Amino acid sequence: MTSIHLSLSSFLSLNAPPRRRHHHQRRLTLTLKLEASSSSTQTMGQESAATTAVEPAVVHRGFKPAARKNLVVRTNPKSDHFPVHRFHHVEFWCGDATNAARRFSWGLGMPLAAKSDLSTGNSAHASYLLRSGELSFLFTAPYSPSIADPSSASIPTFSPSAHLAFTSSHGLAVRAVAIQVDSASSAYAASVARGAIPVSPPALLSDGKTAIAEVHLYGDSVLRYISTAGGANEWLLPGFEPVLNDQELDYGIRRLDHAVGNVPKLEPAAEYLKKFTGFHEFAEFTAADVGTAESGLNSVVLANNNENVLFPLNEPVFGMKRKSQIQTYLEHNEGAGVQHLALVSEDIFKTLREMRKRSSVGGFDFMPLPPPTYYRNLKSRAGDVLSDEQIEECERLGILVDRDDQGTLLQIFTKPVGDRPTIFIEIIQRIGCMMKDEEGKIYQKGACGGFGKGNFSELFRSIEEYEKMLEAKMGTRAAAT
Ligand SMILES: [Fe+2]
């Protein structure tokens, strides 16, 4: 079965009944299912011999220890062509880095952690690095090229002309998704040898040890390889000065879970990325089968060996009553690009309370709340994981809940963060799937609880129920008058 990653952001504003699936829309999904069935999944099996499941209550205090049942064990081909450790940072290119960075800092609770600008001797670009937990967001804008000294740039791949073309075409958007690798130069060479389109050859940063290199990802976005002298935990980029904050700003966001790309055609984009990285298709399972008729898109999720670097890709589906949200994105973004970034919170209730407080004072707006019927049905769907109080809290904050055979996903989407209906943010918390590795270290399996596929059918069902309830009320009122 194929992985289907869905974006529910625009769904919440829909209230149309489900539409029929057309034959031609099924073709690609079917193709991907056939391909994936031989490589990514088995119907039954066991976890890797090197890992064992641990009791969820141990690490998910506050949630009920739901039993895992009907497990569908995924096989992981571990087919990466070079070692990939984790997401390192995401770089936005924008017209004014100061203002973009401050908006995200306030909206997401990510303090300014480092800077590289005129005050640090960089006359080529202003870059501000925000950080919360392991999550790093970098915002970069150019200074006037007429007075800039290109050699003072702290990010050697920065190009004023590429930046100008990028921002005029896309507005505020993600230029680079950076992943930590053993060697940026080896990863670049291995990728280009397997068909990756080169963008920036390996270059050293000012410490003479940290290296970055870039290859084409999709649209005008690049996949950036970074290798650091200090190993996998080094986040401060050479050439940047740390910024000390006496203000505590932390809403609980901890790391990047997945970076989703919208592309015009899924198959070539997925094949391109798979071929040069070796990433495999991550299989997603939910109780309900959700097709393109409900989502208006086809998707696939690509994952690295550790399944902590997740790249879902979406393509639009045509011929539906309502235009695909992916097509809307592609038009407004002038092509492919990053659609959303899913950020893991260690306490989604806290994160949402803090973010909602700031929605109307410089923070981010959220998609409309689901109808009350969604939460009435939630007790039967997730009452074994969430307490009544937690379900009430989900309703108050507009948090959606989905689950797969292994765990539970709490999720919510912001509205697009900038002028255009393009990029937005997802906040998530994953519950369950806690494993112990060979050294006894506890970790959570990647993509535990899925990506929200089941919420499509659940939202349709609850919207229909809600409309019926309203109609019944109107009927009662008409009869009484
Ligand atoms: Fe997502």
Mean pLDDT, rounded to whole units?
A: 85
CATH architecture of the largest domain, by name, is: Roll
Question: What is the oligomeric state here?
Answer: single chain
Determine the fraction of residues in helical runs and give it as a percent range: 25-40%
Q: Quick one: biggest sheet? A: 9 strands, mixed
Fraction in beta strands: 25-35%
Strand order of the largest sheet: 7-8-9-6-2-5-4-3-10
Total number of beta strands = 20
Bulk shape? globular
The CATH homologous superfamily of the largest domain: 2,3-Dihydroxybiphenyl 1,2-Dioxygenase, domain 1
Radius of gyration from the CA trace?
A: 22 Å
Number of domains: 2
Enzyme class: oxidoreductase
Domain VOC: 86-242, 255-415
Keywords: Cytoplasm, Dioxygenase, Iron, Metal-binding, Oxidoreductase, Phenylalanine catabolism, Pyruvate, Repeat, Tyrosine catabolism
Family: Belongs to the 4HPPD family.
